[in-house]
């Protein structure tokens, strides 16, 4: 577990170890909790009056949401990354819980699993741009949410590249692996959609300024995050349409390939059928068959069968079947 606490006051940024004292300190406090044990997370919850149900939501697999309490606002979102699967070689969407507890002048972020997006924000606030924290806890929370949402654009960019490759492969060669890749892309897009829709609803509450911890100056920043989420949802729907179109093209190409094979089999069967009939007639063991005694009977039958085959082949070629 890692518990980091910084307080930005008039004299600059300082690290604190006493969480309760940091809450009451003058300035903006940010407590970052990463990979905590149950007991350690309970200690942080006691120090900042975080309800047990909120702690349970952070630990569990709960959809993104916003809940308002007397002293703070609870925001739950999910950071997402594409990772190589444990069983398959294909990349899979991996979601990580991020809980933000926003007070009037303090922010507690809880990550059951370390999130790279918050690492970037922490580094900027802690090392490069400490003055960012001077704009208040609501602005610091906005920076965290904005960074988490920006990662979804990178995920969709990767998916878009995969869609372009699959579209080319569908036209060139309709193999079984192409359909599998299309289904993988549709599965990833569905997973992203399930994350984005509730996240958009949650950020919409913040963008309207409903929680009292969101100041008027910060509302416009949350509206910007909301606009990004609307754009992401539109992109997901567009990419789902593209994958549906690629799947339809694949199925049409497969159907055309099957039709071509059936055409060839039909030509072969049609040519062989009359030849088989003639061979069957003259293969019957009757005594009185005049053609059997004719010296030119065998050549005549062979020429006739060849003529029938050539006529049928010429017909099918004219109809562009062969």
SSE arrangement:
Blueprint: E1 2-9, E2 12-15, H1 19-24, E3 28-34, H2 38-47, H3 52-59, E4 65-68, E5 73-84, E6 91-102, E7 106-111, H4 116-128, H5 137-172, H6 176-207, H7 216-281, H8 290-293, H9 297-318
Parallel strand pairs: 3-7
Antiparallel strand pairs: 1-2, 1-3, 4-5, 5-6, 6-7
Helix pairs in contact: 4-5, 5-6, 5-7, 6-7, 7-9
How do you describe this structure in short?
It is a multi-pass membrane protein. The chain contains nine helices and seven strands.
Question: What does this protein look like?
Answer:
It is found in: Cell membrane; Membrane. It is a multi-pass membrane protein. Keywords: Cell membrane, Coiled coil, Ion transport, Magnesium, Membrane, Transmembrane, Transmembrane helix, Transport. The chain has two domains: 2-254, CorA soluble domain-like (Beta Polymerase, domain 2, 2-Layer Sandwich), CATH 3.30.460.20; 260-318, Up-down Bundle (Methane Monooxygenase Hydroxylase, Chain G, domain 1), CATH 1.20.58. It has nine helices and seven strands. With 322 residues, the protein is α+β, with helices and mostly antiparallel strands. It is rod-shaped. α5 runs antiparallel to α6 (176-207) and α6 (176-207) packs antiparallel against α7 (216-281). Strands 2-1-3-7-6-5-4 form a seven-stranded mixed sheet, with helices on both faces.
């Amino acid at each position: 577990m890692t518990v980091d606490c910084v307080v930005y006051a008039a004299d600059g940024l300082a690290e604190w170890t006493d969480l309760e004292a940091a809450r009451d300190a003058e300035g903006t406090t940010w407590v970052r909790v990463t990979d905590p044990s149950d007991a350690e997370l309970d200690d942080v919850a006691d120090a900042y009056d975080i309800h047990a149900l909120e702690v349970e939501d952070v630990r569990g697999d709960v959809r993104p949401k916003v809940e308002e309490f007397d002293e703070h606002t609870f925001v739950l979102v999910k950071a997402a990354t594409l990772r190589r699967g444990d069983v398959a070689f294909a990349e899979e969407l991996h979601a990580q819980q991020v809980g933000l507890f926003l007070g009037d002048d303090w922010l507690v972020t809880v990550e059951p699993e370390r999130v790279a997006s918050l690492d970037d924000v922490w580094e900027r606030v802690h090392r490069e741009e400490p003055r960012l924290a001077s704009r208040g806890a609501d602005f610091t929370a906005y920076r965290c949410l904005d960074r988490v949402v920006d990662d979804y654009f990178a995920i969709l960019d990767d998916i878009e590249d995969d869609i372009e490759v699959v579209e080319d492969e569908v036209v060139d060669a309709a193999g079984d692996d192409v359909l599998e890749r299309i289904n993988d892309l549709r599965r990833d897009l569905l997973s992203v959609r399930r994350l984005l829709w509730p996240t958009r609803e949650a950020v919409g509450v913040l963008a309207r300024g409903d929680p009292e911890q969101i100041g008027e100056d910060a509302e416009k920043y949350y509206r910007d995050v909301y606009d990004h989420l609307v754009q992401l949802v539109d992109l997901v729907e567009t990419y789902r349409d593209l994958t549906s179109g690629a799947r339809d093209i694949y199925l049409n190409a497969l159907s055309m390939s099957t039709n071509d094979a059936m055409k060839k089999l039909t030509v072969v069967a049609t040519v062989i059928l009359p030849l088989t009939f003639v061979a069957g007639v003259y293969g019957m063991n009757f005594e009185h068959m005049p053609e059997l005694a004719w010296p030119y009977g065998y050549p005549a039958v062979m020429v006739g069968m060849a003529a029938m085959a050539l006529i049928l082949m010429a017909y099918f070629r004219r109809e562009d079947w062969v």
